[in-house]
């Protein structure tokens, strides 16, 4: 019923940690005679339309992925506020994600403990580093992904 014409509202709805998008759809396209005539066209039998709902976890519309041998994502120098770094990520069995915190020139200052699992708001742990103090200057984040997907990151208070 939803392989022809699809329309959506301008905005999705945020319900807790889930994004919901209602849509209307039909299995016909523009100009199909079934929507203009009722006699012997298959209207409401072969050709029909309905309302649907699609949902996904918060902030998981797009990801950067490191599969197989892994991958690396490096940011431009960033200036953050807060005292912690939060990630939204998923790792596959045997996979992991780590973050190397670098100064603006790219010199590493420390690497996080490995993260595994499926988290919407995981706090990254850098042993021996005071993130709030380091964020007074621009920093570069290097995400090392091994069978992992990174959806978003944010500096939080």
Q: Which H/E pattern describes the elements?
A: EEEEEEEEEHE
Which percent range describes the beta-strand content?
A: over 45%
Shape: elongated
Quaternary arrangement of the chains shown?
A: single chain
Task: Characterize the main sheet.
Answer: 6 strands, antiparallel
Derived from helix and strand composition plus strand pairing, the structural class reads mainly beta
Number of strands: 10
Structural features:
elongated; 157 residues; 3% helix; mainly beta; single chain
Descriptive overview:
- It is a single chain.
- By secondary structure, the chain is an all-beta fold.
- It is 3% helix and 50% strand.
- It contains 1 helix and 10 strands, in the order E-E-E-E-E-E-E-E-E-H-E.
- The protein has one helix at residues 131-134; strands spanning 5-7, 13-15, 18-26, 49-57, 64-66, 71-74, 84-103, 108-111, 118-123, 139-156.
- The strands form 2 sheets. Strands 5, 6, 7, 8, 9 and 10 form a 6-stranded antiparallel β-sheet that branches.
- It is elongated, with a radius of gyration of 23 Å.
- The mean pLDDT is 87.
